[in-house]
Amino acid sequence: MTASRVPERPKVAWDTAWASRGACRDIDPETLFVVGAAQHKAKAICMGCPVRVDCLADALDSGAEFGVWGGMTERERRTLLRRRPDINSWRSFFQTAQRSEDYATPAIR
């Protein structure tokens, strides 16, 4: 019997140089500023990115209006912001969630 592995969530780096480690750092930026079905391809670039959460927090906190950031389209980010107007800092929100998860998840050996 094989043990199933839970995909590892990207750890949150929380530094200002996160963009230099992004999965998109070497691609044409226009690839992330597309509409329609092309957004699925752009979002796929983000899925394995080690700084995806940093990127998303930055986009949400700065009000980025266009493009795919942190794996979310502008429409998805607007929806999230409308649903959670109580969050003043997404960076702090994600940091708190990360700490809670680290604390609540026992080490798997």
TrEMBL record:
Classification via InterPro entries:
4FE4S_WBL (IPR034768), Whib (IPR003482)
* Principal location class: cytoplasm
Q: How is the cofactor bound?
A: Binds 1 [4Fe-4S] cluster per subunit. Following nitrosylation of the [4Fe-4S] cluster binds 1 [4Fe-8(NO)] cluster per subunit.
Taxonomic superkingdom: Bacteria
How is the protein modified post-translationally, according to the record?
Upon Fe-S cluster removal intramolecular disulfide bonds are formed.
Q: Where in the cell is it found?
A: Cytoplasm
Q: Which residues form the 4Fe-4S Wbl-type domain?
A: 23-79
Indicate yes or no for the key word 4Fe-4S. yes
In terms of PROSITE patterns, this protein maps to: 4FE4S_WBL
The keyword DNA-binding is annotated on this UniProt entry: yes
User: What's its job?
Assistant: Acts as a transcriptional regulator. Probably redox-responsive. The apo- but not holo-form probably binds DNA.
The record's family statement is:
Belongs to the WhiB family.
Q: Please report the name of this protein according to its UniProt entry.
A: Transcriptional regulator WhiB
Q: Which organism is it from?
A: Jatrophihabitans lederbergiae
- Gene that produces this protein: whiB
